[in-house]
Specification:
Layout (H helix, E strand, L loop, with lengths): L1 E12 L2 E12 L3 E5 L6 H9 L6 E6 L2 E2 L10 E4 L11 H11 L4 H14 L15 H13 L5 E5 L7 H18 L2 E6 L2 H7 L2 E6 L2 E6 L1 H6 L4 H6 L3 E10 L2 E5 L2 E4 L11 E7 L4 E3 L7 E12 L3 E8 L4 E8 L12 E6 L5 E4 L18
Parallel strand pairs: 3-8, 3-9, 6-7, 7-8
Antiparallel strand pairs: 1-2, 1-4, 4-5, 9-10, 11-12, 11-14, 12-13, 14-20, 15-19, 16-17, 16-19, 17-18
The structure holds adenosine-5'-triphosphate and magnesium ion.
Adenosine-5'-triphosphate (ATP) binds next to strand 2 and helix 1.
Family: Belongs to the ABC transporter superfamily. Sulfate/tungstate importer (TC 3.A.1.6) family.
Function: Part of the ABC transporter complex WtpABC involved in molybdate/tungstate import. Responsible for energy coupling to the transport system.
Keywords: ATP-binding, Molybdenum, Nucleotide-binding, Transport
């Protein structure tokens, strides 16, 4: 059942449209990730939901009631920001109890709620500790507890893990998902990290340039992108444009074509962008007998321990394809200059219609590499 409903939300700052006609619905208990490159309007969207920014137009409803013009302090929404923003001179107890105190709850209620939260975030015994005595990960858990302690209708998190190192961030992802599952609170989580968005979201909202590109579950967003931007942003791939020749074949020009799996909503004649995902292309020195096969020349290899990435020029398509391969300790490597065969199954070829907006090349991927 729809719990949070956002309808045509728009925010302009002078001439700049930060968020344009964004609409989506979130079910109760759902964990939604909002992803997109820097400046695409993620924080602005979140701030409007929290009541910290007034929308230029559009509506926000929670559980059927319109909260668009309700001031922030009258919305029951917990917020966690990138920099935690714990009160430095308050103890962990006082930080977590803050929302309850503001709502006039008595000490007994505060104590019970804080105890419960400390157990959930696994920081029992930290009541009297000050933020500066906690590690980054601990502070972040306290910030999450503070946002949850007053039993909010909704929790909003804006890049809450970006100040943590990679390893801690990974364990905190699991931790946050566990906490959310345990409390069942509806959560919207902003990140510019694609892996985080895909691994954490029940649904993902992909934003670009203030506009919602797609709102769908992670598998759909990854496998059936609705815009070239989505295909390019989520995952690493090489793009070739063409025209749908039959429902299961794309003409790439110069006598080249690629077999694909049929998808609803496409008709021959459609202009499409074809994406060859790095991890779905395989590479061989012998010509494969099935699937889409292209000849290439290895130009470079990038050794990363358990993985090797090959950069391969495919002259017939005028592209360079990157192939990620998992290698064992005894595998021998291909070398630069070698002639190779690239293969991809029709069902692994990702494609999307090219609309007017995405006719020019988009390259947001650099903006969003894993930190
Ligand atoms: N208060 C403001 N006044 C003017 N422009 C603003 C204001 N807040 C945001 N913007 C602009 O609105 C656009 C969207 O900003 P927003 O902070 O929502 O992006 P974001 O997706 O959160 O980016 P990041 O990933 O860098 O945090 C940007 O172009 C930004 O410069
Ligand atoms: Mg932001």
């Amino acid at each position: 059942m729809t719990y949070l409903h956002i309808d045509n939300l728009t925010k302009r700052f002078g001439n700049l449209t930060a968020v344009q006609d964004v609409s989506f619905s979130v079910d109760e208990g759902e964990f939604v990730t909002v992803v997109g490159p820097s400046g695409c309007g993620k924080t602005t969207t979140l701030r409007m939901i929290a009541g910290l920014e007034e929308p230029t137009s559009g509506t926000i409803r929670i559980d059927g009631s319109d909260i668009t013009s309700l001031p922030a302090y009258r919305r029951d929404i917990g917020v966690v920001f990138q920099d935690y923003a714990l009160f430095p001179h308050k103890t962990v107890f006082e930080n977590i109890a803050f929302g309850l105190k503001m709502r006039g709850e008595d000490e007994q209620t505060q104590r019970e709620a804080v105890d419960e939260m400390l157990e959930i975030i696994d920081l029992e015994g930290y009541e009297d500790t000050y933020p500066h005595e906690c590690s980054g990960g601990e502070q972040q858990r306290v910030a999450v507890a503070r946002a949850l302690a007053f039993d909010p209708d909704l929790v909003l998190m804006d890049e809450p893990l970006s100040n943590l190192d990679k390893k801690l961030r990974q364990s905190m992802r699991t931790e946050l998902k566990r906490i959310q599952a345990e409390t069942g609170v509806t959560t919207i989580y902003v990140t510019h990290n694609q892996t985080e968005a895909l691994s954490m979201g029940d649904d993902i909202a992909v934003l670009n340039d203030g506009q919602l590109q797609q709102f769908d579950d992670p598998k759909r967003v990854y496998r059936e992108p609705e815009a070239p931007f989505v295909a390019d942003f989520l995952g690493q791939s090489s793009r070739v444009d063409g025209v749908l020749e039959t429902p299961s074949r794309v003409d790439l020009g110069d006598g080249n074509s690629v077999a694909i799996s049929e998808r609803d909503g496409f008709t021959p004649g459609d202009e499409v962008a074809v994406f060859l995902r790095n991890e779905l292309v395989s590479i061989a020195t012998e010509q494969p007998s099935t699937g889409n096969v292209f000849e290439g020349i290895v130009t470079e290899l990038d050794y990363q321990g358990g993985e090797v990435n090959y950069f391969v020029d495919v002259p017939s398509l005028d592209i360079s394809v990157q192939v990620s391969t998992v290698v064992s300790q005894t595998d021998s490597f291909l070398e630069a200059g070698m002639d190779v065969w690239m293969q991809i199954d029709p069902s692994d070829v990702i494609y999307t219609r090219i609309d007017d907006q995405s006719r020019t090349e988009v390259s947001p991927a650099e903006a969003a590499v894993e930190q």
